[in-house]
Predict the structure.
Amino acid sequence: MQPEAAAPAAPAKPRKPDWLRVKLPVGPAYANVRRLVDEHKLHTICESGNCPNMGECWGAGTATFMILGNVCTRSCSFCAVATGRPNEYDLDEPRRVAEAIQLMGVKHAVITSVNRDELKDRGASVWYETVVQTKQLSPSTTIETLIPDVKANWAALDTMIAGGQEVVSHNMETVGSLYRLVRPQAKYDRSLEQIRRTKEAGKRTKSGIMLGLGETKEEMYKAMDDLVANGLDILTLGQYLQPTKRHIEVAEFIHPDLFAHYKEEGLRRGLKYVESGPLVRSSYHAERHVNVPI
C-alpha cells in the first residue's frame, strides 16, 4: 500500500522588503496638523487609508482632507476606509474644511471623499462648496480634488469639477483585468470616460494605479495607453500594501527599478508627468503636479 502523498505546501507570502520601511510620524508640525484635524472634527484619508507617508506630509504641515464622512458605499477589496451605509451629511463641512486649510496656511490642498452612491448628486454640491469656500478664504492656495466614480452621473461630475480647482484626479487603481476583483462596483471603461470628460472640461487630469496586485507589464502598458488616449496628464504609481487580513493580499512587491521603468514608459507613451515609486500615493508630492502644462 502506497503512503498518501503529502499535501502541497501553500505558496509563501512575499515578505515586505527594506525599501518599504517608513518613519513614524513625529515633530511639532505633525502635532499641529493633528490638533487642527481633531479640533475641526475633520476626516483625512491619511488616517482612514493608513497612508505610509502621513508622517512626511503632516510633518510638512499638509494633509489630504476627506469630505462627506468616513463611511463608503463601495466595498473595494484594497481599501481600509469603512464600508456601510453612511449617516453623515454635513452641509457645514465645506466651511470647516476651508477654515482648517486657512489655519494651516498650506499652499496646496488635496481634497478627496468616500463614495456616496446613495445621494442623487453623489455629494457634488458639497464638493463644489468645499472648493469654492476654500478659494474664498485662501485665494492663493491651489487645490487638487481626488473625486470618486460618479457612476456615469455626468451632471454630478460637472458640478464637482466646477469650483475652480487646478487639478482633478480620479484613480483607476488597477488594470482592467483586475477590476472585478479589486473594484467590484466600478467599471474600467467608465472610469476612463470620467477622465476623458474631465479633460474635455479643460481640467488638468490625474490618476493613480497600485502595483503588486497581480498585473503584468503588458497590462500596465495598455493601461497607460488607455489613459493617454483619454486625456490623462499625470499618473501616480505606488506599491499596494494590504491594510488588514480581510483585504486582498499582496501578490508581489515591485522593485524600485521596475517603478523607474514604468515612469520612463509612461513618459514615452505620452503622459506629461509620472510619479512612480513603492511609497508613492495619490497625494504624494501633489504640489508639484499643479504646474504640469495642459
Observations:
- The chain is about 35% helix and 15% strand.
- The first strand starts at residue 43 and ends at 44.
- The longest helix spans residues 124-137.
- The chain has a mean pLDDT of 86.
